[in-house]
Amino acid sequence: MRTENQARVWALVLLACGFVAEPTVAASSAHDHAAAPVKLQLDAGKKWTTDTPLRQAMTNIRNAVDESLPAIHAGKFSAAEYDALAAKVSGEVSYMVGNCKLQPAADAQLHLIIAHMLEGVAAMEGKQGDDGRQRGAVDVVGALNDYNMYFDHPGWVPVKH
Q1: CA distance 110 to 91
Q2: Number of Cα atoms under 13 Å in the Cβ half of residue 148
Q3: Cα–Cα distance, 26 to 9 (Å, whole number)
Q4: What are phi and psi of 48, to 5 degrees?
Q5: Spatial separation of the C-alpha atoms in residues 120 and 104, rounded to whole Å
Q6: Which residues, other chains included, contact 22 with Cβ-Cβ below 8 Å and sequence gap of 6+?
Q7: What CATH number belongs to 50-152?
Q8: What CA–CA distance (Å, rounded) separates 47 from 40?
């Protein structure tokens, strides 16, 4: 169950990112750039630049997910453990949104990844039923893999899924 503070953070994240439900929906954000892109893309063939807060938050999410995967794959991850993982990911996303300072085009790309990640968080929280919790973890892994493909994060270790 989300606390009141977590609910406020979610509202802030969703408003700041301009997301509702679909990660591919073009939406405006609170940042000073044109409409967000509808799909992930590289920066003229290169990965987008990252900053320290983004790298820290994504590494923390990656590590938490990676540590949980054996139990998730074995079907032994409890609802409480999914809730705790969802809270960890949500907290890191909140930190990222509050502290990450990217160029507008990179920020718009990151918003697509965050939206995908937040869909996974919602599913891990049981919002799609208990059967959707594992799919939520898969969504978060997918978002991490997208981050790896589109963002330059020195030393990043992809999640083996």
Answers
A1: 16
A2: 15
A3: 22
A4: -70, 150
A5: 25
A6: 115
A7: 1.20.120
A8: 11
Amino acid letter, 106: A
The enclosing H or E element of 131 equals none
Q: What is the pLDDT of residues 15-40, one digit of tens each?
A: 444 443 333 333 333 444 445 457 99
Domains of the chain, by residue range, sit at 50-152
What tokens were used for 55? 């790298």
93 closest CA partner among 65, 123, 57, 49: 57
| Owner of token pair 């169950």 | 1
Are the C-beta atoms of 95 and 52 separated by less than 8 Å? no
Residue that the structure tokens 């020195």 belong to: 154
The C-alpha atoms of residue 26 and residue 43 are separated, in whole angstroms, by 18
Residue 139, φ and ψ in degrees, nearest 5:
-60, -40
Q: How far is 66 from 23, CA to CA, in rounded Å?
A: 23
Question: Which amino acid, 134?
Answer: Q
For residue 48, the SS3 value is: strand
Instruction: State whether residue 46 is helix, strand or coil.
Output: strand
Query: From CA 154, how far away is CA 146, in angstroms rounded?
Result: 15
Tens of pLDDT, residues 122-155: 999 999 887 899 999 999 999 999 999 999 999 9
